[in-house]
């Protein structure tokens, strides 16, 4: 196990406890959900839960979410399958997860989506995967692209318990998200308003948000 991965797992084991309050209610809400529109989990699985060569979609994310929920059926990640639960999620695309494998597993970035998913699931424990996923979810009234664009400098509190700070470029309007790793490039929003009109809305990002300083 790499030194970076050791630090990541050890720190996440502690910070993951911050989501405990949400975890006591979210699985029950997901189980009782009736109607309420379309959940983000449905959107992620829309192409049939299969890997392809389109790096801008969310096949790896979908697979990681499924693995976490299979191993931990009561996980707070289940809110993503509850269309009545209001939330905004920053969704790492497949390119983002390929980049992450280079830092967590070591070596070069995974060349395919299948290899990226396999590397993460094999080398990162389920509690860590769960915590990383929760760091991408902001509970509360969904924020569409207009609201996010007006949130320059605002720290959004995630379901994991940590904050993600929004930065908006005044010249070109590009939106980046500052996570807890100051040495890594900040993820950039590359697609917006996924599932707009429902209680859960997503914005695609080109890197995985990091809840700790690696």
Automatic annotation (TrEMBL):
Coiled coil regions in record: none
Q: Which Gene3D superfamilies match?
A: FAS1 domain (2.30.180.10)
- What UniProt keywords are attached to this protein's entry? Signal
Q: Where is the signal peptide?
A: 1-30
Q: What residue stretches are annotated with the FAS1 domain?
A: 45-209
Q: Which Pfam families match?
A: Fasciclin
Q: Which domain of life is it from?
A: Bacteria
For this protein, the record's InterPro entries field holds: FAS1_dom_sf (IPR036378), FAS1_domain (IPR000782)
Stated name of the protein: FAS1 domain-containing protein
- Organism whose genome encodes this protein: Nocardioides marinisabuli
């Amino acid at each position: 196990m790499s030194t970076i991965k050791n630090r990541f797992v050890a720190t996440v084991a502690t910070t993951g406890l911050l989501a405990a309050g949400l975890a006591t209610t979210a699985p029950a809400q997901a189980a009782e959900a009736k109607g309420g529109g379309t959940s983000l989990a449905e959107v992620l699985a829309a192409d049939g839960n299969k890997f392809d060569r389109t790096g801008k979609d969310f096949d790896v994310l979908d697979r990681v979410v499924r693995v976490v929920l299979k191993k931990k059926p009561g996980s707070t990640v289940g809110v993503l399958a509850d269309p009545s639960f209001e939330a905004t999620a920053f969704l790492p695309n497949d390119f983002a997860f390929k980049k992450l494998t280079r830092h967590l597993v070591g070596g070069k970035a995974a060349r395919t989506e299948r290899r990226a998913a396999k590397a993460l699931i094999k080398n990162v424990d389920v509690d860590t995967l769960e915590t990383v996923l929760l760091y991408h979810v902001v509970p509360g009234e969904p924020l569409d692209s207009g609201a996010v664009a007006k949130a320059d400098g605002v720290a959004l509190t995630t379901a994991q318990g940590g904050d993600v700070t929004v930065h908006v470029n005044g010249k070109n309007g590009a939106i980046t998200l500052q996570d807890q790793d100051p040495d890594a490039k900040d993820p950039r929003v590359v697609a917006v308003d996924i599932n707009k009109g429902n209680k859960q809305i997503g914005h695609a990002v080109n890197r995985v948000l990091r809840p700790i300083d690696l």
